[in-house]
Structures are given as C-alpha cells and as structure tokens.
What we know:
The chain contains 13 helices and twelve strands.
Amino acid sequence: MTEIAPALLKVRGLMKSFGGRLVVDDVSLDVGAGEAVALVGESGSGKSTIARLLARLVEPDAGEVSLEGRNVLEVEPRGPSLNYRSKLQMVFQDPFASLNPLHPVRHHLERPLLRHQRVPKAGLEARALELLTMVGLSPAAEFLDAYPTELSGGQRQRVAIARALAVEPRLLMADEPTSMLDASVRMGVLGVLQSLVKERRLGLLLITHDLATARLLCDRVIVLFGGRIVEDGPAEQILTAPSHPYTRQLLGAIPRGEPRPVPTSTARLPVPAGGEGCHFRSRCSEATTTCRASMPQLTSHADGRRVRCFNRETAHAV
Length: 318
Ligand SMILES: Nc1ncnc2c1ncn2[C@@H]1O[C@H](COP(=O)(O)OP(=O)(O)OP(=O)(O)O)[C@@H](O)[C@H]1O
Ligand SMILES: [Mg+2]
C-alpha cells in the first residue's frame, strides 16, 4: 500500500474468531480523511464484524487499529475512550431500530452533545438545528420536536446520521445504511454522506451489498471473501476490470452497464474452503494444484490494487 499522507484509520493484521472459527483473518486496510471506502462481499463474509471490531463493540483477538496515528488497542487496552468513540461513529442499517420511538429528534441530538460536552447547555438547540440542516432536513425547526414514528425511513436515517455527526467524528462507518430505504430516498441519504466526505473531509467506510452505490460514492473498494480481503483498489478499476475471480463472479453476470448487487443469500453456494489452500478454491473455476496446496498472499500490484490470487497478474476487463 502506498502511503502518501498518514491514513486517518490504519488497520493491520486484524483477527477475530468466534467459537474457534476464524471470521476475520489478517485484515489490513487504510481510510484517509476525505476518502470513501466501500467494503463489499457476500453475506457472512465478515463486513459487519470488521465494523464492530473497529468500533470496539467487540474486541479483536489480534491486530493494530490506529486512528489519527494512535494505536488505540495499545493505548486503550481496557476499552475505547470517550474520545475514540467520538472520533469514530457508526450508522446502522435500520433507522427504525436505532432511534428510540419514545423520544423526539431533539433528544437524540442533544444527548450526545451533552455527554461529549460539545456545546454549553444554552447552545444545544442551535447546534441541533445546525446538524439537522447539515443532513438536509429543513426547515430544521419542524423536525426538532418530531417523534421518530412521524418521520419517513429516509428522514430517520438522516436523523441517525445527524446524531453520529453531533460528536464531530473524523470517521463514519455506515453498515448498509440505505438497504432498508426505498430507492427514491436512497439517493438523498447517499448524497448526504457524499457531501460530508467531500466538504468536511470525513473518512467513510461504507458497507454495502450494492456495487452501483460503491461505484457512485466510493474512491476505493475492498472485496471480502470468507473473512479475508481478496481485492482492494480504486473503485472504478475494480468495478470495471476486476482482477480476483471472486470479484469477477460478483460482477460477471452483469451483461453490460451497471454493477448488480452482491447476493445477499449464499445458502446454495459452497462455503469458503478450509485447510491449507486458497479459501476461494471450492468456487473457483481456475483453481490449480498450487491453489489447493497453499493460501495466496494479498499482493500489491503496480496499478495500485492488492489482489490475493496466484493466477492474477493482470486485470481482466468485463
Ligand atoms: N457474536 C458472534 N458470535 C458468533 N458468530 C458470529 C458473531 N458475529 C458474527 N458471527 C459470524 O461471523 C460471520 C461473519 O458475520 P458478519 O455479520 O460480519 O457478516 P456480514 O458480511 O456482515 O454479513 P451480512 O451481509 O449478512 O450482514 C458469520 O458467519 C457470522 O455468523
Ligand atoms: Mg452485516
């Protein structure tokens, strides 16, 4: 990985297993300020677990997580500080579940502002109004005393984003933030995220099944399979000329034009292979004896991408 400026978020060798099963294996990635990075992969590939590990909702077994140059696992071994939690915020898939129906919008915004001591009490309302305007809810005053049940899905997700922004994070992790929204409001919410990245230099780690969204919004795409990164590089390159056979499978069935969603159900597909060889070999039509004997490394290529495949020296256009 070429590092021009120190990354906002730097992850190295992240590992996590549940009940003896390795779910996140040696994941290394960077997210820069003002950079949007998509994390894609089929259901069960470990996307949400990576986000939860970075938010430290779950503790990793091994690895390094540095935010703004601070190795947080080392300096905050007992759990994340309030400072870390303010710098890295998460937006979840379901805006219905993430807002408390008993409290108005005002409460959801003022609570983090008070807890993280972002503004004096007298300035709470003005800041809440500012946050609502930032996510495109205007006139903001009309939303302040509304209850979540009075809002549409898209409006609720904007409130959830405003709440995440209240503590002035440097990095936003959004786990399928628009997958439960109608297509008509999806673009609006994605537009909010895009403007935060471009105008406020926020880092964005966007977990998505939707490759079209990744292409539209993200500078870089990281493809996960079975808990390991199989390909990582500039979004346009990866989505138009995928290099790893798994990325090609994700994109391959699209006749021409827009990327299609990653399958959400993998019930009928073979599970990632265990043992010595490449974990993708049971699904790969190009697997050789080498692929059955050992696991390929994630190798950096001259075009700026990393690929985990013995057979991939050059990119293949679709
Ligand atoms: N707390 C846990 N205990 C045991 N297994 C877990 C736990 N959390 C996740 N897993 C397992 O880890 C694997 C990865 O799950 P994860 O939720 O990260 O996948 P995902 O890529 O986010 O999938 P989806 O697209 O369906 O959201 C799955 O096999 C899941 O069952
Ligand atoms: Mg998930």
